[in-house]
Write a structure and sequence with these properties.
This protein is mainly α. 73% of the residues lie in helices and 0% in strands. The protein is built from 77 helices and one strand. It is elongated and about 175 Å long. The C terminus is likely disordered.
Length: 1593
């Protein structure tokens, strides 16, 4: 700080320094700023004195000037004394003695300016002594100590109570008098003052007594509060607080209990701000740290209780635990120490001092204070009072009186709420402090909830201003917070109170489900962890839930249900979480649990819905089993539970449906399982691939018939539940989105979701997605009104092009819309004109169809490329996709079946004696009503179907444009219509088959029925392989229905002529488009049709065998499913059936350990196939092999191999037809067969060129196919050689082509056999047989070797010389002769009944056969050995079956019986001989046989050895046939001899052969198999030579 006295002033002190200093002091003392002036003067005086001490100025000069200055201020002496004090301290520390002396002299010179007293206060005693102001410093010190002690430490003696009690008596009398009159606090205060003065009373004790009296007279707040307030002006501010503190302290010993009156007095004083809370709070016990410790301890204890409840305790330990717990509880029941803070808090709440109460609560852990019941109740009471006016205005329910609550008397209490805004400011805050402890006051709980309801009503009613809206939004979020933090936790702590739960639901149901579910989520996952009490409650709930669930069974559903209900009212989330966890583990709990949930409240049902969704969405659970091929059982159980519970109880579905939609959006389709179950249970719409044909038929009727006969479970009373489902879908706009998501997800499953997954699982998911779509679409179709549907489903082009919905799904969704639309238009037109004639009605119907469908025809054009519409018209396309089975046919049998069931029911009701009459009446009425409904529905459908057929009749001419070929038209039809739809659903599969038949019956121009069926049955491999499991099942149904139609036409010439004979679909020349002629020669006649059907059966076999042999899981599974579905109509031909049976048996063996599901399928099919075996027929009964027109034969022989037995034109026609049918599969055939295409076609096209060995031919196809896969090239060559001893190119081609050719051959063979059988009388046959046999046995030994060699060589020479056609003829003749022999049935696997021909027609027939049959032998010889064993059996049976009808008399039967035994013996002897001969022959053969090398025959032999032993062996090589051929050889021999001998022997022989074959099939199967193995190799070549020699003979 700058010096105020410059050095110049001191130097020139006398001249001008003195006057300058005086002027400075005057200026400073006049300064208005008092503080600044004071400090500056202090400094000026200090500097002056300091100059004196340093000796710069004399002390008398200084004293003079100070005398002048001293007047300037009143406090100048005091300032000077301060300066001396500082200098005193400074100089006493200095070493220079002179400075100290200067200071003493200065002070002495100034004594007249400053009084002694001031100096004595401020200077050191030693200084005072040196100045002479005091005598001795030591005495002075002692004296000051005594004075200080007296002043500060000695208490004054007031008059204490026991000494001077009159004053206090008067004081108490003053305060205790009747205060009701005009006495005021001011008056009393004056009296108190007088008493204090008079009796010298202690003011603090007087205050204490005033407080004591106030405690005793709490009602006089208005008197005491002003009294204390006025009294406090006389005391120090802290006094009141200290006195209260002492009072509280008095009660703080362990046994003390603070009286409530003291709390109340403290609270009132706090409320009136007479004391500060902070000052009082420190006097209260326990300390805050102790409270926090206690709170932590409570949490730990709660957790320990939880741990104990979840631990498994053994019974011995249990008793000990219980005893310990009891002891602990006893300790706890000892009174806890008094908590004065809580006592004060309670008092504050009671008088309504919310401000101070809040600050106390804030000092403690959350909810600690309110966890004490008294405080919770006090706070509740305060809330009651605060909400009263608003509650009375908006919250009281209609008709309720209620008990009004009076407001608090004191004006400082919180303001009562008049509006929701005020409610938010005060009350919500109070409730937040209450938290879960609102449970102590259920009435307040209800009031708060009702206010919430009233607010939501106001909130949801529109029409408020923007500002208000924002306020309302804030209020709404506050309400949600209160619900989360207060209402739900409080509900958890209430004793089961169903009314509270319902009351709460009244408010909750006004929230959107998103908010509700969020609240439930926080309730379940967070709330229970926040309070010790709730932690305990959670543990107890789980414990109780375990107890109930352990005992829950179907029998005790009611009592258990009540317990569950009771438990759920308070803690639904915890309970349901546990129940659902149990259901996921044990699905047998589902039914009892669902039944036991009937005692739940609405809120609980809603919570259950949330818990289900949470369980489904649990990220920790795997949705697949460990094998990754099946959906986890927990998910299946939950889905099943969902369906049952949502159906039975009125639970809101929106959340669940939205969850499924969200999962689909995310590309996850597992959860569709839930939707599937919900729709199934709630709407009664079942989706199952296991439907019986009866059910399927019922599904094609009206709604009533569907409900009665279409489902496995008779799901009744679905009206309400399906309405609920519909409402949920429409209210939340989920109907169409779900459909579209499912339709898109089908492909998503394959291309996105299925990336890493197992193929089997991908198939399952795809099926689930598809099935759910079909089911869901079915639900919408039957439940949505026309308006709803049209409003929601966009047009077909939008669906496909914008939403990328697959076409089949898009039409599936739109189809009901078209149907609804047409029917509503039709009704409009009917109303407009009252014309009742059928024609008018039909006309109106067609008009309405045109109106509705015209835009659809336009829309579909954009779905495909323009060139598609060259072949089929958009109208045809739209018609196909928009119709259903309901439109095409009336299921009369289904209607009759259901009506009959109802009649039976009614009869049972009548017969039931126990049923009470009124119930009888009701039941009968129900049945009668149903019956009437069904009949009415049938009538309605009949009319509808007639109208539709009329419409189709008019449309059909424009359907197929055929701007390209008919073949192309059929391709488009199958590709765009049939194939996509036939695998869409089971009913669609049936519909497709019916539609094809309908298009045929309508004689639609340019539609080739024959081509269509041919393409459907040919090469089903690719289609089957690309199906999922359920699609395969539907595809099987489609094939089954197609086969049913074909089989019906095949079964009877009359039906065929009637339904196909003159129809354009059966034209065999595919002429230019315009031709619709009925040239009889161009129609496929009945016999040729039977050949074609046989071809189709063969193609199915070929495809099936191929699939079964791939080893691919999908191929095998799908083909087995398809085969199971088509069992009623396929296989019909015995040898095809046996071929299949072997393959399936092989699958059974191979897959038993590897793939149990395939094993199960195969076993199932195998069993069913065996049961069908008796209904299978030999091939010659399936189609005749003789040309039907006998006189035509000689002429047609010239047609060559392709045309034998057919009119030339027909041959060409069939060739053309084949071009169509083979087009698709040519590639396959070329690969596997290496066939010359033309030959292939001709062979296929000549169904009549067949022989008795046709079966073997067909088998050879199959064999060939398999062998091609299995054997090396060499072996194939060998086989060819074996089959055709002279293998010219044409022969090879034919042999290879065996796959296609022998079908027709078989058919012709059957025909021939049948005709011959009819002509030949039984007795002749038998005689001839006997002759043949005897002769054969005599001549065999001598002739065998020679004949073989001769015949072999001649045959070979002939074959080499002959052109290929003659060779073929020769072969066929050979086989004809063999067949004629008729000695043994199983010849070359033939299934025809072995009936010898009559003598008269024999030679003529023989010639024909020789000409016609030349083709067959190469492929016949390639028959399957293992086939034969089975064929032997079955053909033996068939032999009997087929011959007996021809017997005209009973005599012949007797003859048969007698001869049976003989024939058996003979056949056995003959076979033994044959064995030896064969061996000899074989040796000769192998030398002679240039074409067949020895090693190849050996190999054949080995193969036969192995394969022959098991029926189902894989190798079906041609080498298997020799056994049979050997038999044929015998036939040839016996035939030649038989002609010489009489008829009687013939008859006898037939007996023998039949009995022999029987015997073999039944008893000697094993023996014959062994023999045949041995014989197989030799017999084959030998047989051929015999044939050739016979031929040339």
């Amino acid at each position: 700080m700058a010096a105020l006295l410059p050095a110049e002033w001191i130097k020139n002190w006398e001249k001008g320094g003195k006057s300058e200093f005086v002027q400075l002091c005057r200026a400073l003392s006049e300064n208005k700023n008092h503080d600044v002036g004071f400090r500056d003067i202090q400094q000026a005086l200090y500097e002056l004195a300091y100059h004196v001490v340093r000796g710069n100025l004399k002390h008398d000069q200084a004293s003079n000037v100070l005398g002048d200055v001293i007047e300037f201020r009143e406090d100048m002496p005091s300032i000077l004394a301060d300066v001396f004090c500082i200098l005193d301290i400074e100089t006493s520390c200095l070493e220079e003695k002179n400075k100290r002396d200067h200071f003493t002299q200065l002070v002495l010179a100034c004594l007249y300016l400053v009084s002694d007293t001031v100096l004595k206060e401020r200077l050191d005693p030693e200084t005072l002594e040196s100045l002479g102001l005091i005598k001795q410093s030591q005495q002075f010190n002692q004296k000051s100590v005594k004075i200080k002690t007296k002043l500060f430490y000695k208490q004054q003696k007031f008059n204490l109570l026991r000494e001077e009690n009159e004053g206090y008596a008067k004081l108490i009398a003053e305060l205790g008098q009747d205060l009701s009159g005009n006495i005021t606090s001011d008056l009393i205060l004056e009296n108190i003052k007088s008493l204090i003065g008079c009796f010298n009373l202690d003011p603090n004790r007087v205050l204490d007594i005033i407080l004591e009296v106030y405690e005793c007279r709490p009602e006089y707040d208005d008197f005491f509060v002003p009294l204390i307030e006025s009294y406090m002006y006389m005391c120090e501010p802290q006094t009141l607080c200290h006195i209260l503190g002492f009072k509280f302290k008095f009660y703080q010993d362990p046994s003390g209990e603070t009286p409530s009156s003291l709390y109340r007095v403290a609270a009132v004083l706090l409320q009136h701000n007479l004391i500060d809370l902070e000052d009082l709070y420190v006097h209260l016990l326990p300390g805050d740290n102790a409270i926090i410790e206690e709170h932590k301890r409570e949490i730990v204890e709660a957790k320990q209780i939880v741990r104990k409840l979840t631990m498994v305790v053994l019974s011995s330990e249990k008793t000990e635990e219980k005893e310990k717990e009891k002891e602990k509880e006893e300790e706890k029941t000892e009174k806890p120490p008094d908590n004065q803070k809580l006592g004060l808090l309670e008092a504050l709440l009671k008088i309504g001092d919310w401000h101070h109460a809040q600050s106390i609560m804030d000092q403690m852990p959350p909810f600690y204070s309110t966890s004490h019941k008294a405080i919770a109740i006090a706070l509740c009471q305060l809330v009651h009072v605060t909400i009263e006016p608003l509650y009375r205005r908006v919250g009281v329910p209609k008709g309720a009186k209620g008990s009004p609550i009076s407001s608090l008397p004191n004006k400082r209490a919180p303001k009562q709420a008049e509006s929701f805004e005020e409610l938010r400011k005060e009350v919500f805050n109070m409730l937040c402090y209450l938290g879960p402890h609102l449970s102590h006051d259920p009435i307040l709980f209800a009031k708060v909830v009702r206010l919430g309801k009233a607010f939501m009503k106001e909130f949801q009613s529109d029409g408020s201003k923007q500002e208000d809206k924002e306020k309302m939004e804030t209020l709404f979020s506050c309400l949600l917070s209160i619900t989360d933090q207060v209402l739900l936790p409080s509900l958890s702590l209430m004793d089961c109170n169903a009314c509270m739960s319902e009351e709460l639901w009244g408010m909750f149901k006004t929230f959107p489900y998103q908010y509700r579910y969020r609240l439930y989520g926080q309730w379940k996952n967070e709330t229970y962890n926040s309070h010790p009490l709730l932690v305990k409650v959670k543990a107890q709930t789980i414990d109780r839930a375990k107890y109930i669930m352990k005992r829950l069974t179907k029998e005790n559903v009611k009592p258990s249900g009540r317990q569950i209900g009771k438990l759920s009212h308070s803690n639904p989330t915890i309970l349901f979480d546990y129940i659902l966890s149990q259901i996921q583990k044990y699905d047998n709990l589902i039914t009892p649990v669902v039944d036991s949930l009937k005692y739940l409240t609405s809120l609980n049902y809603d919570v259950l819905a949330y818990c289900i969704i949470e369980a489904l969405a649990n990220p920790e659970k795997e949705r697949m089993k460990h094998d990754d091929t099946t959906i986890s059982s927990w998910l299946q159980s939950l889905a099943s539970f969902c369906g049952a519970v949502f159906r039975k109880y009125p639970i809101e579905l929106a959340g669940l449906l939205q969850y499924v939609a969200n999962q689909l959006k995310a590309g996850k389709s597992f959860d569709l399982l839930i939707l599937k179950e919900v729709v199934q249970k709630m709407a009664g719409i079942e989706i199952t691939e296991e439907m019986t044909m009866e059910q399927l038929e019922a599904m094609t009727g009206g709604e009533q018939l569907k409900a009665e006969g279409g489902y496995f479970g008779q799901i009744r009373n679905t009206k309400k539940s399906s309405q609920r489902l519909k409402d949920a879908l429409l209210d939340h706009d989920l109907a169409l989105p779900l459909c579209l998501l499912m339709a898109q997800q089908r492909n998503g499953v394959v291309f996105q979701e299925g990336g890493e997954k197992h193929l089997k699982l991908v198939g399952k998911l795809y099926d689930q997605c598809h099935d759910t779509l079909v089911q869901f679409g079915g639900f919408l179709a039957s439940n949505l009104s026309t308006e709803d549907y049209i409003k929601r489903v966009p047009s077909i082009d939008v669906l496909c092009n914008e939403f990328h919905t697959p076409h089949d799904a898009a039409f599936f969704l739109s189809r009901p819309m078209y149907a609804h639309h047409i029917s509503s238009k039709y009704d409009e037109l009917k109303k407009a004109e009252k014309g009742n004639k059928q024609q008018h009605k039909v006309h109106k119907y067609i008009t309405s169809c045109e109106l509705v469908m015209a835009p659809v025809h336009e829309a579909v054009i954009s779905l495909h490329l323009p060139k598609v519409w060259d072949d089929i018209s958009p109208q045809f396309y739209a018609t196909f996709w928009s119709l259903t089975m309901y439109d095409l046919a009336v299921p009369h049998s289904s209607y009759d079946r259901e009506v009959n069931k109802l009649k039976v029911q009614m009869k049972a009701i009548d017969d039931n004696q126990e049923m009470p009459p009124n119930k009888k009446k009701k039941e009968k009425e129900r049945c009668t009503a149903l019956q009437d409904k069904l009949l009415e529905e049938e009538k309605k459908q009949l009319e509808h179907v007639q109208r539709v057929l009329q419409r189709l009749k008019l449309e059909k001419d424009n359907w197929l444009l055929a701007k390209s070929t008919k073949n192309e038209t059929i391709t488009k039809f199958l590709q765009l219509c049939i194939f996509p739809r036939c695998i869409f659903s089971a009913i669609d599969a049936v519909y497709c088959a019916h539609f094809v038949e309908l298009v045929h019956q309508q004689k639609t121009p340019n539609f080739s029925t024959l081509l269509c069926y041919d393409r459907v049955f040919s090469d089903i491999i690719y289609t089957v392989a690309s199906c999922t499991e359920n699609e395969a099942s539907r595809y099987g149904r489609f094939l089954c229905c197609m086969l049913e139609t074909v089989t019906r036409w095949h079964s009877d010439r009359v039906i065929y002529e009637k339904e196909c004979g003159n129809y354009p679909g059966f034209l065999t020349i595919l002429r230019a488009t315009g031709f619709d002629g009925g040239n009889k020669a161009d129609q496929l006649d009945y016999e040729n049709f039977r050949h074609v059907v046989h071809k189709w059966h063969y193609k199915l076999t070929k495809a099936s065998v191929h699939c079964l042999e791939t080893g691919e899981y999908t191929h095998i599974r799908n083909i087995l499913i398809v085969l199971t579905k088509i069992l009623p109509w396929y296989p019909k031909v015995l040898n095809l059936g046996q071929a299949l049976e072997r393959r399936v048996h092989k699958i059974c063996q191979e897959e038993k350990e590897k793939r149990p599901d395939l094993y199960a399928l195969a076993m199932g099919y195998s069993g069913q196939l065996k049961s069908r075996k008796p209904f299978m027929i030999p091939e010659n009964e399936f189609h005749h092999k003789d040309p039907p027109a006998r006189n035509a034969v000689p002429a047609t022989v010239q047609n060559g191999p392709g045309g034998a037995g057919m009119p030339t034109s027909l041959t060409i026609n069939t060739v053309r037809l084949e071009e169509g049918t083979t087009e698709e599969t040519d590639k396959l055939k070329e690969k596997s067969q290496g066939v010359v295409k033309v030959i292939n076609k001709t062979v296929n096209a000549t169904p009549k060129v067949t022989t008795s060995n046709g079966n073997s031919a067909s088998n050879s196809k199959i064999i060939k196919e398999k062998d091609d896969k299995e054997k090396s090239g060499k072996e194939k060559d060998k086989e060819k050689k074996d089959k055709t001893p002279a293998a010219t190119p044409e022969m090879k081609a034919l042999g290879k082509d065996g796959k296609d050719k022998p079908k027709e051959e078989r058919a012709n063979k059957d025909e021939k056999a049948r005709e011959i059988k009819e002509k030949t009388p039984k007795s002749d046959k038998e005689k001839e047989k006997v002759k043949k046999e005897e002769k054969a046995s005599k001549e065999e030994k001598s002739k065998t070797v020679v004949t073989i060699i001769e015949s072999k060589s001649t045959a070979e020479k002939e074959r080499e010389k002959e052109p290929s056609r003659e060779r073929d003829l020769a072969k066929e003749m050979k086989s004809k002769e063999n067949a004629k022999g008729g000695e043994k049935v199983p010849v070359a696997g033939s299934l025809k009944s072995p009936v010898p021909r009559s003598e008269t027609s024999e030679s003529e027939r023989e010639q024909k056969r020789r000409k016609v049959d030349t083709h067959s032998s190469p492929s016949h010889s390639s028959t399957v050995k293992d086939n034969l064993n089975e064929l032997k059996e079955s053909s033996a049976k068939h032999y009997i079956n087929h011959t007996t009808p021809t017997l005209s008399k009973s005599k012949e039967r007797e003859v048969e019986k007698k001869d049976l035994d003989k024939s058996r013996e003979r056949s056995r002897e003959r076979e033994k001989k044959d064995d030896k001969d064969r061996k000899d022959r074989k040796r000769d053969h192998s030398n002679n046989d240039r074409e067949v090398p020895q090693d190849s025959t050996k190999r054949r032999k080995e193969e036969n050895g192995t394969t022959g032993s098991s029926k189902h062996s894989k190798s079906e090589s041609p080498s298997d046939s020799p056994r049979l051929n050997e038999k044929e050889k015998e036939k040839n021999k016996s035939k030649s001899s038989g002609k010489e001998k009489g008829d009687s022997i013939k008859a006898e022989k037939m007996e023998k052969s039949s009995s022999g074959s029987k015997k073999e099939s039944r008893h000697d199967k094993e023996k014959t198999e062994k023999k045949e193995k041995r014989d197989s190799t030799g017999g084959k070549e030998e047989k051929k030579h015999h044939k050739s020699s016979d031929k040339h003979r």
